[in-house]
Amino acid sequence: MNHESERRGEEFVTRKISMWAASVAVGHPYRLRLGNLDARRDWGYAPDYVDLMWRVLQHDRADDFVGATGETHTVWDFLNSAYALTGHGFPIDERWLEIGAQDLTRPAEVHELRGDASKAKRVLGWEPTVRFAELVRRMVAADYARAAGRPPLAGRT
């Protein structure tokens, strides 16, 4: 499933949105271009998946495990959650958005990606610790700190 964090590459939609929300929060909004807002993804926190990898390596035999939250959210959900953290009232100012950009729309889009981590929980005792709202908050907070000229605080964004 999609592993996200404050260090996600700037070319990924989640990071594009968190950087844009930070620009709105510091008063320097720019036009954000997005493709399909209806795509649903199972977004989890990358350090949670690193914990899962460590547990797999400690397991007494080789096996396959899925790391996932089991929840899906749309790109639109991510955008709204990030924007809610800016302190600006809704709705989002449409002057700041370009939706449905054809060059950002995948020709063979998978509408929904959701994982089932029940085996990882049952066998390894693993489950995600960071849920969607907290993931978005951490990403926006880190980009806000960068936009405001401060380094993000590791583990405390």
What report would you give on this structure?
The protein has one domain (2-147): 3-Layer(aba) Sandwich (Rossmann fold). 38% of the residues lie in helices and 10% in strands. The protein has 5 helices and 6 strands; from the N terminus they run βαβββαβαβαα. It has helices at residues 13-25, 46-58, 75-84, 118-124, 132-147, and strands at 2-4, 32-34, 40-41, 43-45, 73-74, 97-99.
Supply the key terms.
157 residues; Rossmann fold; two-stranded parallel sheet
Short overview:
This protein is α/β, with parallel strands linked by helices and 157 residues long. It has helices at residues 13-25, 46-58, 75-84, 118-124, 132-147, and strands spanning 2-4, 32-34, 40-41, 43-45, 73-74, 97-99. The protein has a single domain, classed as Rossmann fold.
Reconstruct the topology from this structure.
Elements: E1 2-4, H1 13-25, E2 32-34, E3 40-41, E4 43-45, H2 46-58, E5 73-74, H3 75-84, E6 97-99, H4 118-124, H5 132-147
Parallel strand pairs: 1-4, 2-6
Antiparallel strand pairs: 3-5
What percent of the residues sit in helical stretches (DSSP H or I)? 25-40%
The name of the CATH topology is Rossmann fold
**Level-2 CATH architecture:** 3-Layer(aba) Sandwich
Largest sheet: 2 strands, parallel
Note the total helix count. 5
Unreliable spans are: none
> What is the CATH superfamily label?
NAD(P)-binding Rossmann-like Domain
CATH class: Alpha Beta
Task: Name the assembly state.
Answer: single chain
Average pLDDT rating:
89
Overall geometry: globular
Report the count of strand segments.
6
Category by helix and strand content: alpha/beta
Hey, roughly how much beta strand do the residues contain? 5-15%
> Which strand order do you get reading across the main beta sheet?
1-4
Count of separate structural domains? 1
Radius of gyration in whole Å, from Cα?
Answer: 17 Å
Order of helices and strands: EHEEEHEHEHH
